[in-house]
Design a protein that fits this description.
heterodimer; A: 112 residues; six-stranded mixed sheet; three-stranded antiparallel sheet; globular; B: mainly beta; four-stranded antiparallel sheet; 49% strand
Chain lengths: 112, 125
Amino acid sequence: QSVLTQPPSASGTPGQRVTISCSGSSSNIGSNTVNWYQQLPGTAPKLLIYSNNQRPSGVPDRFSGSKSGTSASLAISGLQSEDEADYYCAAWDDSLNGPNVVFGGGTKLTVL
Amino acid sequence: EVQLVESGGGLVQPGGSLRLSCAASGFTFSSYSMNWVRQAPGKGLEWVSYISSSSSTIYYADSVKGRFTISRDNAKNSLYLQMNSLRDEDTAVYYCARDYYDSSGYSPPGGFDYWGQGTLVTVSS
């Protein structure tokens, strides 16, 4: 059971806009920033969004992030076939047992 | 070109030990905090451990605390993970990952920009 909650799957057609949600609590998303990763099949994850809504250099502006309270969202506009991948949210968690990074369970995006 | 190359994975019996290594190149290793992240077969990502650039700050996930030890050798541009008392549930691909720093020098917690290709650890009798 992951600390951050994501829908297990999402889908869309080419050109469409899709969103993926990530729900947490006051100890993680509620008090820290959110990062998003894209993992293509058989490859290591790639940082897509950091600090809720910032894109690292080289990430297309079709990808955007937002955060409100204890939830965050990743939006992908102009969906392309190469966007078919697993997407993970991540955040720092101020746990009583010590700080750590928590991930969502991942959302498998299918481009129909 | 930034490269992170993990090694040391393999098959080990429950209760056994293994030491993973991550060889870094293409950047000033001693300036970056590093992490280990794992992924069980067909499952999601799980952060394992963090070490600051000077080794002064170290964190572990609850699931490995007391069993795993992270360390680094900046002179050798290498990151390590000593894994003891291994359990079936430790079976996973283990990735080393570098903390991301943006153009202003800010490092977002939990933001990792470069990852290795991963090394598979299988714990089974």
